[in-house]
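Mods, move this if it's the wrong board.
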Amino acid sequence: MSNELFSIVDTETTGLFPQGNDRIAEIAVITTNRTGEIVDSWETLINPQRDLGKQSIHGIQSRDLLNAPTFSELSEELHWRLSGTVLVAHNVSFDARFLEAEFHRAGAPLPEHVIGQGLCTMRMSHRYIQGAGRSLQDCCDSFGIDLRQAHSAAGDATATAVLLSRYMELDPDEPEWDSRLHAAATSRWYGSELGHLVPAVVRSQRASGSNEHFLEKLTKQLPEFSGTETEDNYLAILDLALMDRFLSAHEEMQLLQSATEIGLDKSRALALHEVYFQQLVAAAWADNSLTVEEIADLARVSTLLGLPSQRVEEATKRPASAEGGQDGQSSRANHQIVPGALVVLTGDMSRPRAEIEERLAAAGFTPHRAVTKKVALLVAADPDSLSGKAKKARDYGIPVVGEDYLWNKML
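Not the wrong board. Structure tokens:
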């Protein structure tokens, strides 16, 4: 294989300002040779150590980043992957600015020539496909290139690699291709083989209904234990986790950790989930009626708890005991945030933050800008947010809920 190679790079970022607080959240490097053949393909998510910005654009979920490396952890490997190659991107100035900022932040800046010798397929479109738009989609459409998984680093980088090969096919004798490849190869700065590759973390491809329930991660059998206090502690955590009727990845991890610490195996955890569900059923039947909304709520909870679907049907046919579960414990109604409680927001909400804070105040709550131990609730655009506020809230044991809880339960 020739040592004269292109590195086609694409990044997905939290925003537009690398010199501010925005970071790279995903990167792909597609390596091709002079004929346009793909010789290597690599991608990984990156923990940006902040919230993900407009997730509606890049589609990255915070739960997918829990085990992702930071850019600093990847910096040496990226030096190795880019060394001696021609950097290529669609709008190379955008990706280059983020790469430069991230490498500088990691204390491992790129050699100056890397960016200067880079190629931009967006700018080259003016030469080879005059009249086309500048977006990657427009350029790909001009050649009939299938742009799959747009706004994912791997999808965009792969399409850009094909676009570059089409340019070279249109103009095979352009001396710039070979001159840049030769210059890059002779200025390789990472000469040795890399001793250790950082495990890549890619986006989950979750089909609807196909997610493994978190209880499947519990070992089949742990040593037996006894103790109602520890069981009740687990139910208390479950109560907070299900407050917004959504289990974030962080909450699943917390429940798994709690179950492991007290020795719950899967069957015993499911038994406690049955207890919890029956307590909710008892609370729903407290007024001797069951509304459509309450049935829907019970259905959501039973799914989150990993219980058989017939539990909901059983709950609609007969009133549950008002005692609400084992040992005479009172039923667990929805955890409520009382008027006057401090509520903090984080992330890019569906409405302006000032408007949400105004509505919270009108509803009797106290909007607060900082997470302290006195805060009762953190509302996050993404319940698995990696923002500093979300991390602090979890450290303090403050519930972190999604925006739906705000509109459905509080406002």
